[in-house]
From TrEMBL, chain A:
Keywords: Cell membrane, Membrane, Oxidoreductase, Transmembrane, Transmembrane helix. This is Hydrogenase 4 subunit F. PANTHER family: HYDROGENASE-4 COMPONENT F. It is a multi-pass membrane protein. One of its GO terms (cellular component) is plasma membrane. One of its GO terms (molecular function) is oxidoreductase activity. Coiled coil: none annotated. The chain crosses the membrane at residues 32-49, 61-84, 104-121, 128-147, 159-180, 209-231, 243-262, 274-296, 316-334, 368-389, 409-428, 449-467. GO terms for biological process: ATP synthesis coupled electron transport. It is found in: Cell membrane; Membrane. Residues 125-416 form the NADH:quinone oxidoreductase/Mrp antiporter transmembrane domain.
TrEMBL record, chain B:
GO terms for molecular function: lyase activity. InterPro entries: HyfE-like. GO terms for cellular component: plasma membrane. Its main location: membrane. Keywords: Cell membrane, Lyase, Membrane, Transmembrane, Transmembrane helix. This is Formate hydrogenlyase. It is a multi-pass membrane protein. PANTHER family: HYDROGENASE-4 COMPONENT E (PTHR38601).
């Protein structure tokens, strides 16, 4: 029942906003729909905590502690981003960058994007997982080119072609998965690609076919995670789209894509009886982390800077999941949570910083603390949090990942440490002059909604010093599920 | 048994035709003819799907063949041709450098695809699976086409050819994906092409051309 609400609210919202999305009250409708979704997601969480994993609608949907955790996170960030976007998009419209028609497109597609992600998270059918991942791409492509500038159209085209090709590989992987399972799963057509059924027989899946399938699935969905060397679309799409879109792409879509990879990895682990899938994840993860941290130095644009930081962190999470085991999986899940919250908070403040300075170039942004103390503090604290300063939650998860790496894979530790140090120096040296110093820019016409920023950072801070036992238990359950 | 053999041979012939069309697309410079080739690929797909449906008695594959006919032979080419007319690029030629090299790379890709599909084909509980290598080759050739072309319109044709290869893989190796999934994929494809259409207008409005060489400002600086 709750699952229907979680999927239904955003879908209805998308339809409603397709009609009234250009009205004065559209932003409020957007917030209300997102709040309703969040409440439904909370109800779903309560249901799963008490009742355990369940399947709904003739097993087409499947909810367990692993995905319900991501549903809750997605609904939360979806809601706070809607709150943030209300004044932000009003300021953008005031600058003349958006016509009412485009505002309608924005609101409607925002909800459609949320719906696609919820379907991807909760579906039990590997085919539908693919369809909804593709739908998530399609609904955001036109959002990336919302401003219709040359750069934004180029970014959207790149996003479309690269992710389209990537996801086509994932479809080939899905077909191979079907080949590997063929004969094992009798029954009707509808049941053939159900994850729960595949999971039950994963030990008998034909290993050679499954190995090939996993390579295609990893590269395909990995493109959407932003794993190097297929990360090219990510910085462009994040930098050129409107800031709320950057926040949900970075904070949510990357997680959902990684979730798809993990579902496939659980099956591949069971079929292959070897550490190969884990090693592949570790390789891709380390490469992404290292490459992204060096690219950070070359960035001039504030949103590109933090987009590369997202690649770096997705690399760390992928590496953690690649190591596997209860501690690394726990740390990976924690890192997913704190990265999502921190990165969206940073994008919120970066968006307003760019608005007040009139440019996204970092050498044009100065003196945020003097102009808008809350924006300045938000950016500073957010950056410190994402760089892994204690006592924020990112420190806790990175510490766990590093210590596990030292124990199990000592060779990887220096690489990770170098990447983290390089990223620290790069981001800190850029953020510091933006926050301090003098400015002659004028304050923003609408006061920014920065409550979400501080709510996110407060949660991240709390997770750094104290993880509530219920939440810890939940992470543990999910980590155990991921170990297969 | 004799009919089974005939059907298998026919299917392999169709697979070969698909591969040939892919090579033809790689070397074709006229946009208009590329659409024609894409339609031919669609026709081959419809024929092979119907053939598999008839020999394997998989009735749901008939629906899937009908869907393919409607979408890939009817609707998509119609949308593409209309777009070409509206954008005035019907007679566009695209200069292609180094066709021989492109062909050689294509050949290497085909060999690579067959090598990659070998473990799956070796299992071959159904004879049909032998065509997986060809399907993978079609996918890789479409990749090559997307990489080698500089115009937005031809990249999209490459993208659709890529999808054709995937569809062929699905029908010929596993008697097709479950029908609901296929419907979902078809829907995504259709929406995708609509968005491509919107893009063409946005690109040609902003850049006065569909040549992607103009789209190279977003580089790392």
């Amino acid at each position: 029942m709750e699952i229907l609400l979680v999927l239904g609210f955003p879908l209805l919202g998308a339809a409603l906003l397709a009609v009234v999305g250009a009205q004065r009250y559209a932003a409020e409708v957007n917030v209300a729909v997102s709040l309703a979704t969040l409440l439904a997601a909370a109800a779903l969480v309560v249901r799963i905590i008490h009742g355990g994993p369940m399947t709904v609608a003739r097993e087409q949907f499947f909810i367990d502690p692993f995905n319900v955790f991501l549903v809750a996170l997605t609904a939360l960030v979806g809601f706070t981003t809607a709150v943030f976007s209300r004044p932000y998009m009003r300021i953008e419209a005031g600058h003349g960058r958006l016509s009412p028609g485009r505002l309608r497109l924005y609101h409607s597609m925002y909800q459609l994007f949320m719906a696609a992600m919820f379907v991807a998270l909760t579906t039990n059918n590997m085919g539908f997982l693919w369809v909804s991942m593709e739908a998530a791409t399609l609904s955001t492509v036109l959002l990336v080119s919302l401003y219709r500038t040359r750069a934004s159209i180029e970014a959207a085209w790149k996003y479309f072609i690269l992710c389209g090709v990537g996801i086509a590989l994932a479809l080939f992987g899905t077909i191979l998965l079907y080949v590997a399972a063929e004969g094992l799963l009798g029954g009707s057509d509808m049941d053939a690609l159900l994850w729960t059924h595949l999971d039950a027989v994963k030990g008998q899946l034909e290993p050679r076919v499954m190995g090939l399938a996993f390579v295609f699935l990893l590269v395909g969905y990995g493109t959407k995670v932003g794993l190097a060397p297929l990360h090219n679309w990510l910085p462009d799409a994040h930098a050129e789209g409107p800031t709320p879109v950057s926040a949900v792409l970075s904070g949510l879509l990357l997680n959902v894509a990684l979730y798809a990879v993990m579902r496939c990895k659980i099956l591949a682990d069971g079929a292959l009886h070897s550490a190969l899938p884990g090693h592949m994840l570790m390789g891709f993860g380390l490469l992404s982390t290292l490459l992204a941290s060096f690219y950070l130095w070359r960035q001039r644009d504030i949103k590109r800077l933090f987009a590369y930081s997202s690649i770096e962190h997705m690399g760390i999470i992928t590496f953690a999941f690649g190591m596997g085991g209860p501690v690394a999986n726990f740390a990976g899940l924690l890192h997913m949570t704190v990265h999502s919250l921190t990165k969206s908070a940073i994008f919120f403040t970066a968006g307003h910083a760019a608005q007040s300075a009139g440019t996204q170039r970092m050498d044009g942004i100065r003196g945020l603390l003097a102009l808008h103390p809350s924006v300045g503090w938000g950016l500073m604290l957010g950056s410190l949090a994402i760089l892994g300063m204690p006592p924020f939650g990112v420190f806790a998860s990175e510490y766990l990942i590093l210590t596990t790496a030292m124990r199990d894979h000592p060779w990887a530790t220096p690489i990770l440490l170098i990447a983290l140090a390089v990223a620290f120096a790069a981001i800190f040296s850029r953020v510091q002059p933006m926050v301090f110093g003098d400015t002659d820019a004028r304050p923003l016409p609408h006061s920014p909604a920065l409550v979400p920023v501080f709510v996110h950072l407060a949660i991240v801070l709390m997770l750094g010093v104290y993880i509530p036992p219920a939440l810890a238990e939940w992470y543990r359950l999910a980590a155990r599920l991921m170990a297969g | 048994m004799a009919t089974m053999n005939l059907a298998t041979q026919l299917l392999q012939m169709l697979a070969g035709a698909l591969l040939l069309i892919s090579f033809a697309m790689l070397a074709e410079r006229r946009s208009r003819r590329l659409v024609t080739l894409l339609v031919w690929q669609g026709v081959v797909l419809v024929a092979s799907t119907a053939l598999v449906a008839a020999t394997a008695h998989q009735s749901h594959l008939y629906y899937s063949a009908a869907l393919t006919l409607l979408l890939k032979v009817g609707l998509l080419p119609w949308i593409l041709l209309r777009l070409m007319r509206k954008l005035g690029i019907e007679r566009d030629n695209e200069p292609l450098v180094n066709v021989p090299t492109l062909m050689l790379v294509g050949l290497v890709l085909v060999i690579f695809a067959f090598g990659l599909a070998q473990p799956v084909s070796a299992l071959a509980t159904t004879i049909i699976r032998r065509t997986l290598g060809i399907a993978l080759a079609v996918v890789l050739l479409a990749f090559l086409m997307i990489l080698a072309r500089r115009k937005a319109f031809t990249q999209v044709i490459g993208f659709l050819a890529l999808e054709n290869g995937l569809f062929f893989a699905a029908t010929s190796t596993t008697y097709g994906m479950p029908l609901v999934v296929e419907l979902g994929i078809a829907l995504d494809l259709l929406v995708g092409v609509f968005i491509f259409g919107i893009f063409f207008f946005q690109i040609s409005e902003q850049f006065d051309s569909l040549d992607l060489q103009h789209l190279e400002s977003l580089k790392e600086d």
